[in-house]
Amino acid sequence: MEPVIRVNDLSTYFYTGAGVLRAVDGVSLHVDPGETVALVGESGCGKTVCSLSIMRLVRPPGRVVGGEVWFEGRNLLDVSERRMRRIRGDKIAMVFQEPSLSFDPVYSVGAQLAETLVQHKKLGRREALRKAVELLKMVEIADAERRAASYPHEFSGGMLQRAMIALAISCEPRLLIADEPTTSLDVTIQAQVLELLSETSQSLGSAVLLITHNFGIVSRYAKRAYVMYAGQVVETGPVHKLYQEPQHPYTADLWASVLDLDRPKKTRVLPSGKGISDLVHEDSKCAYFPLCQHRELECERERPELVAVDSSHHVLCHRVHSGGSVHVKQ
Ligand SMILES: Nc1ncnc2c1ncn2[C@@H]1O[C@H](COP(=O)(O)OP(=O)(O)O)[C@@H](O)[C@H]1O
Ligand SMILES: [Mg+2]
């Protein structure tokens, strides 16, 4: 089965005064048709920059410096900006953490939904407005006809998030990238929105890349996940394997702190008592070395390479050798 999207060795750096920050550092991932795959990791590990790189929305001082993003037989990093604009919001849609990135405050929600349909689906204005109301109903917005005429600020956070999902699915995308779609919502609404996201993507057959810092969400909504740390995918595999036999100490640490994950980002710390300080790390060691409770001499001397634990499970850790397995569960 051809994946909907295949990202190979993607790197995006920020050229800052403090040095070159490797926000995304050689990330490879794929999403199969109809599959929901999670990209999970601490705040600041590079998840958003990764999705922006896929969509070619990285702005200076950031730059995609290498890699490939294969989608429908084309490397998106090579296509024209014109083609990219057609792909965005049509074949690949994004749901952001912050709805204000999707909605303009000066137009009604219905008008903006309709505008997208006019542009991407070439619908007439009246037909587009009718479809917009239908989409708002689909995401369970009560009194959708009246609500379509409301402005974004007249919607509650949860409603706006659902409207953003309506906008994202309006063109029946092949791939939906949902970047922390519910982080700003309270827990009950979070569950509703994620259920809705999962149902609508399933009914449309869209593949979903679900980006989150919350392992609880991963285990509930994704079968497969990529664990990201300091710009790199440090472990990937079926979620049950990542849970039952995590190979990377960071994966184990993430599970161990899963109950902590909804605490405000600033106050949350990793088990060692440190956060990710910066991504201006050296090439010559494992990025997790400073925080790792299982580090060995080799980890400081050499950067690890991704090895296969089995055909579906890969890890970036010196302690694991191809076909082997270590026990790091705490
Ligand atoms: N515009 C920018 N300028 C400089 N650094 C940036 C910029 N945007 C993101 N970064 C850095 O890139 C890294 C990854 O950020 P991000 O992808 O937003 O993390 P995540 O989404 O996982 O929380 C962070 O260290 C962040 O500070
Ligand atoms: Mg982010």
In short:
The protein has 330 residues and is α/β, with parallel strands linked by helices.
Please explain how this structure is put together.
It is a single chain. Helix content is 31%, strand content 24%. The protein has 330 residues and is of the alpha/beta class. The chain folds into 2 domains: 5-91 and 171-316, P-loop containing nucleotide triphosphate hydrolases (Rossmann fold, 3-Layer(aba) Sandwich), CATH 3.40.50.300; 98-170. The strands form 2 sheets. It has an 8-stranded mixed β-sheet with strand order 6-7-8-3-9-10-12-11, with helices on both faces. A 4-stranded antiparallel β-sheet has the order 2-1-4-5. Strand 4 and strand 5 (74-75) form a beta hairpin. Helix 6 (157-169) packs parallel to helix 7 (187-204). The chain is globular and about 65 Å long. The chain starts with a strand and ends in a 14-residue tail after the last strand. Bound molecules: adenosine-5'-diphosphate and magnesium ion.
